[in-house]
Design goal:
Length: about 350
């Protein structure tokens, strides 16, 4: 009975697109799609320039891995939209992992982290790969000793005065840097703010289809303002039909509907981070739309939000064009100089 109650609660929590939008640049009905200017930050880790600078160094430093040859940025690189450009990630000794490297763009706006939601906060998430033997495989006591006896100590002293360098400080610094990786100035954002020229007619048509539950039905999961509901869904990917498939969220919450369910990623900056899906099985945005159009490949345990879509080829192209409008124009990224 308890499981049935949880399933009922899960079903009623789905985002329903009921908003009546007026598809005119700057209209009040569209403002829910704008992200807050300030990224949510926990009270015990207020954002400071010193923490961000330190976190940036740690994020790009390969010495935080067991072999000294792999950093956070190895899988989350600005060169690839803060992912890695591969179908699935590479870990310790180039081990091929089972899931794609998720983007870290706008993760500060999310209230749960990782494809399976096993970490709630950015602080928890930031240290996990270092401890994971299949990923960065870092000896944490060795890491603490390195940071305490290197030039890093000066930077930690500035970021965390009178605190001893430990896992908590490392996590808080990296999380602080990740909260600065933000996309909220795309052509779509400019259109929502009132710039009539920011979107083409095709892109506006694509947005209409995107939010229409009877057409694209995309916003049911990729909801405002960060284009994610922070929920978990089985999309009917072909990989779920393989022997011993990745069960995703089910490993954390053993409910039937969570079998093969993975976290909805934001699609802001989506053009920068191909391939797509947690298994990297879609090479292009059109591949993604085609998958949704047929309602997925494997129907067993498919999310209730998945259904066959009645879309013409032109409508599919319009949705792709709209998604292309969600990318904030990239700026040159300056790498940090690492302490000795």
């Amino acid at each position: 009975m308890k499981q049935l109650a949880l399933i009922a609660l899960f079903l009623t929590s789905f985002h329903v697109v009921a908003t009546e939008y007026v598809f005119e640049a700057g209209h009040a009905s569209l403002q829910e799609w704008l992200l807050p200017e300030n990224v949510p930050t926990p009270k015990d880790n207020p954002l400071t320039p010193e923490k961000v600078a330190l976190g940036k160094m740690l994020f790009f430093d390969p010495r935080l891995s067991g072999d000294g040859n792999m950093s956070c940025a190895s899988c989350h690189s600005p060169l690839f939209g803060w992912s890695d450009g591969q179908k699935t990630a590479r870990g310790h000794k180039s081990m091929v992992l089972g899931r794609a490297s998720p983007v870290v763009v706008n993760t500060g706006y999310n209230d749960i982290q990782m494809w399976d939601g096993r970490e709630k906060t950015l602080e928890d998430q930031s240290i996990g790969p270092m401890r994971n033997t299949a990923e960065m495989n870092m000896d944490i006591p060795k890491l603490r000793n390195f940071l305490r006896t290197s030039d890093y100590k000066e930077h930690f002293d500035k970021a965390f005065p009178k605190e001893t360098i430990g896992v908590e400080q490392i996590a808080k610094a990296i999380a602080s840097f990740e909260r600065t990786i933000v996309s909220r100035n795309s052509p779509f954002d400019k259109w929502v703010k009132g710039d009539k020229t920011a979107l083409s007619e095709q892109q506006v048509r694509g947005f209409k289809l995107f939010v229409d539950p009877n057409k694209g039905n995309c916003a049911v999961c990729h909801s405002a303002p960060n284009f994610t509901d922070n929920g978990f869904h089985n999309l009917g990917l072909a990989s779920y039909g393989q022997e011993n498939p990745d069960l995703g969220r089910y490993t954390q919450r053993p409910l039937r509907l969570m079998k093969g369910a993975f976290k909805t990623p934001t699609i802001r900056d989506i053009t920068l981070s191909a391939p797509y899906f947690h298994d990297g099985s879609a090479e292009t945005l059109m591949d993604v739309v085609e998958h949704y159009a047929i309602g997925g490949v494997v129907k067993e345990n498919r999310s209730p939000n998945m259904k066959t879509l009645n879309l013409s080829q032109q409508e599919k192209e319009d949705i792709v064009a709209f998604m292309e409008s969600l990318t904030t124009p990239p700026k040159a990224f300056v790498l940090p100089i690492l302490p000795l």
